[in-house]
Amino acid sequence: MTESATALGIDVGGTNLRIAEIDSAGRILSRHAERVTNGREAFPNRLAELVASYRSPNVGAIGIGIPGRVNAAAGLVLSAGYLDIGGLPLAAWLGATTGLPVVVENDCSMALIAECAIGAARSAENVVMFTIGTGIGGAIVQGGRPLHGHATAGQLGHITVRPGGERCNCGRQGCVETTSSGTSLGRLIREAGLATETTVETLFARSEAGDGVASSVLRAWAEPMRDAATSMAAAFDPDLIVFGGGLGNAMVRALGQLPPETSWYSYDFRAAALGDDAGVIGGGLWALAAHRREGVPQSSLPAFAADVGRVPVFIPQQP
Ligand SMILES: [Zn+2]
């Protein structure tokens, strides 16, 4: 690869799939989005078609974010929510099909890589991220690289904050996903007797006008999130905690309005900056960082990825 090398970043969501060509500064050179194609054969086949369509001569690697549990070192999808691609050796398959090196990560890890490189966590090396949407995703960057643990570290929506609370999809009770997700906010709105179409912006407006019901809904939504964030601060002492996803800004605002709590642990927190582009930018940058191990000059990449010796990457065998 040369200084002008680019990568394809692919962000697979529960609903939409985004693909973009990303340069080494994290700029989007071209992009495309469509509804995600489900199916054990249909999904990878559509992915290969998209790569063929959006691949320019400069593209030297591919980075894919998957909404679920991923074994990044093996390039293997373990589970991906309702997408039927569990067990798919995605990096090996797409690498062999396209002839390009492929990195696979959890989608939230890719978003956090982008936020660390050019977004809300720029130049921070130890960052925790929660993504607040229908559910709650999470990722941890420690020492400038995603933390994987045995394989799938970062499932932060399943931190227990209310023991004995609502049953979670994961089989346990009282996970923060059951208290502070978008789904939970909808439930809190209904339980408070408010109209089901009430938006979080409406809640803030009513709360600021002195409406105690709106204030209590926002507090009930944000307080368990603060418990989860403070637990992460106790465990990892990050430089920063970032809140992304469709409700990331709202969560930061709601957290800022909570009455102060007294604990040993304090931390900076802020909203993610890159919105829906974070996944493709992170995918592209991480693919470039991984490929650089094969000889790309270091000056072409963000400082956060200066040490990529342990980046998992699948290099296909040349035929
Ligand atoms: Zn759970």
Q: What do these coordinates show?
A:
The protein has 319 residues and is of the alpha/beta class. It has two domains: 135 residues, Nucleotidyltransferase, domain 5, CATH 3.30.420.40; 154 residues, 2-Layer Sandwich (Nucleotidyltransferase, domain 5), CATH 3.30.420.40. The protein has nine helices and twelve strands. The chain has a five-stranded mixed sheet with strand order 3-2-1-4-7. Zinc ion binds next to loops.
For the structure shown, list the relevant keywords.
319 residues, alpha/beta, Nucleotidyltransferase, domain 5, 2 domains, five-stranded mixed sheet, 9 helices, disordered C terminus, binds zinc ion
